[in-house]
Amino acid sequence: MADITPRLFSVGEDRLLHEFDVISSSINRGLILKATTKTDESSSPTALLPLGGTDPRFACANNGYQIKLWGEQSRLKLPSFTNNSDSQDEKGGKDDDDNDEDDDDEDADDESTGEASKTISKDTLRCVKTTLAPTYGGPVSELIVIPSIGKDGKTLHDSQYLFYSTYSKMTGLLKLPLDGDPFKSSALIAHSGEISSCACTCDGRYVITGGSDDHVVTVWRVSVNALESSIILGGDPNQAFANVLGEGGQEGETFKEFKDFYYLCQLKQQGIDTREARKITNLIPPEQVVNLFRAMGYFPTESEICNLKQELASEAYPTGPDGIPQVCFKDAVRLYVNHRSVFGLKRGEIEEALQKLIHDDEEKAIKREDLLNIMKVYGEVMTPDEITTCLAALQGVRQKDVNSSQLIEALPAMMDADDVATELLGLVK
Questions:
Q1: Is 128 found in the same domain as 25?
Q2: Are 105 and 337 within 8 A, CB to CB?
Q3: Which of 206, 234, 262 is the last residue in one of the domains?
Q4: pLDDT of 292 higher than 90
Q5: Domain assignment of residue 90, yes or no
């Protein structure tokens, strides 16, 4: 990190990133927890790496094939609009009430353990960027900074590369800064099975990997020439993201559909029924970026929307008269590729989620009223007005022409996984 104060972090399958108070910890007092941050809603973290510099950040890989960059909240200068999506705290909900009760119990238990347990702070880190990770050989399981030594053999420069390994066979290099460009990563098969550990020499010239299945320790010489050639030959990064977006790249149907939805978002921002002259800015604000994602079949949670807004605020995006960042088409493609689920939303996941709500293994459907009530109370809760707005949009009617009862009655009385996918999520069979 930028200063010399020792810091200790850990991540786990509970999706929590912990920082421990190394200075106050001791053999007698034990390891004291200082702060904790939730990293993901669905994916579990698989690797964590501090990135040094004047603005230190943390790279956290997860099993959703993403690498998220986290910055310290005290160092970030984010405008107020980034907190608009923190509706969970504002709206409340049953989960929050349950958590409050748990917190009360924990506080009662902690009274006998000393004051240190009462100083734990939450959300000291903010996710400032989400990027696509290498997708071969399973999720990234380890990240290492490749040191950059000057020609004199002594001067240490800011590193430009990361070494990574996956759970199965693969290792490679990543070019900094991370942005999700597939041409800025390389990969090779290092072992016949699981890679148990990796290390890098202090001069950055060699990397050592150990295989748990083949019982082999391999020493690799670091050569960035192949990676740099790949970046040059890859050409325009916009074309690379278009290729990842869908089959056919910029000539494919997915890309054309994305462009149509992007233009529609521009119209919606100015008002579909407006009679005023259209202002073609080729830019859309964050709320329309979220609508664009949903139109393409990716439904971000409220916390993911908050992460997106923080990324737009912390990166160099143009801003409108109100100071809110604006996103051009090529950046919208890049953001979508980096933020969406790599494997998309599968029917089995919808069935599994619905079955948890039904609480009966023999039943495969749920009453529409029960499902809507659950949406108002549990998880990232929705208000009745929000539900009405969404149903009107999904049913293709103007909200002012119908009431909420009519919209609800248009849904099937008993809703199974297919009904949820088509009637509530707007997915095509």
A1: yes
A2: no
A3: 234
A4: yes
A5: no
